[in-house]
Amino acid sequence: MARLKTRSSGMTTRWMTLTSVLAAVLCALSIVSADEEYSEYLPRHHVEHRDVSSKINKKELMIVTIKQEPYTMVTRDEFGNPLFSGFIPELIFKLSRRLRFDYRFREEFAYGKFDNTTQQWTGMIGEVIKNEKDSNQGADIAAAAITITSDREKVVNFVKPFQNLGFSIVIKRPDYATDLPYTFSIFQPFDPALWGLIILSVVVVGLFLWLMNMYNPYEWAGRYGLGLADKQQSEYFNLAGSMWFVFTSLQWQGFEKAPRSIASKFLGCVWFAFVSIVLVTYTAGIVNHLFWASMVHKSASIRSPFVDLAHLITNKDYKYGVLENGQTYRYLMDLAPGEEFDAIRRYLKSPEGQAQLVKNVTAGIEKVRKGKYAFIMESMMAKHEINRRPCDLALVGDQFGNRAYGLALPLNSTILSDLNVGILEMMEEGELEELERKWFVDRNECWNVTVMDRLATDVASALYVNKPKSVDLGMFWSPLVLVIVGVIASLIIAFAEMMYYRQWGRYKSSNQPQGQQLKMDPDEGNI
User: Does pTM top 0.85 for this prediction?
Assistant: First the structure.
């Protein structure tokens, strides 16, 4: 009995231990899952406390940001509270966990520039400057895709850049289309001029067969005149019959009766050789054209209308512009060296160039989609835009103009060094790269279009190089010469036949066939 109690007690203990282990594992998994879900859709107002010890001596940091996908996206919950998500909110979230601080987001609607009228900075930069004068005013941090510039560096401090990038050119994607606009026609294997010569050959050969039937005494009509053929036989190669013979043999349908004279038979042989060459060439051509027509392509070139910035400014068909008074505009107008940038500056200062400036990125993208317009913008945002549906945008040329994005702080901020260390640690550990991949690459909505576009570019480039060419007179002159030689040779043979008939071939009373009623030749009693 004691043994049973001991064994039962041991089993109970093991069962409780196993249950505790499973509970601990489930708890750990739920915490990890909660953290992952939390990082996907970031805090409404602030981060919960992760640790009572904080490196930053402030109860809660006020952070201003601006709505710009995928850096910062703002939605509302059922109570109207803002929900911030995107690259910037997750960056701040990860920094807050490293440096153990609370924060609260507030949305602003401008990056910030110096207003000459009020002699003050506006937007997020202005909010950070306010905090320098009064820590209870403005914002502790401006977190967005803020370009680090010398003018801004004079009035605020920037944390180490979290992104280094440049500028790119965005255009409407050249149309390679997945439809088949190439209209196939049975006449495409041959050039129109060659078609005309083939038809002319049909008519000429048919006429010559008819004429030889009429005037060659050894043909059916000639024999009918001599009483050696009946009426039906004499009509085998009348005009309609001759044309029918030529046409049916051209279609490889055979023929009912063959010519009788040597001249006509020789012309028929030449015509059969010509027909064989025509049909074999046409069959090969139509197969090539059918294959090419079945491929994905368009009759217009799928290549970009220009290849880089220098080509863009010389392209008369395309207009181009930038964000009005943005950092791209400032770079092009004040900083960028080179002759092409001198041309861009002259253009943007002109009334025509001023008309191509846009108020925001969305307006620039909409203008691109209308066609014949190139929008110059930050490269990372450009990559984001071309990977969004409806997947009709493309980048042209290489990235140019090195720029950097950073968090802006007041000049007297005491948290600058901590944030610098946090950004550098995230960079060294690959977290920044992971964030970029998550928000700029993994969210690609056009991966299949990108792959198809690359394949179509490679395949269609080869297709346009190897596009079947219609057979023209330059390729097909020798068969036509064969017909001409055949017609001339048959005329010579026909003339020889008629001369032979006149001298030796006419029937006389001495060589008249027995049992036939022949018509009398009026000349010297010849038949």
Answer: no
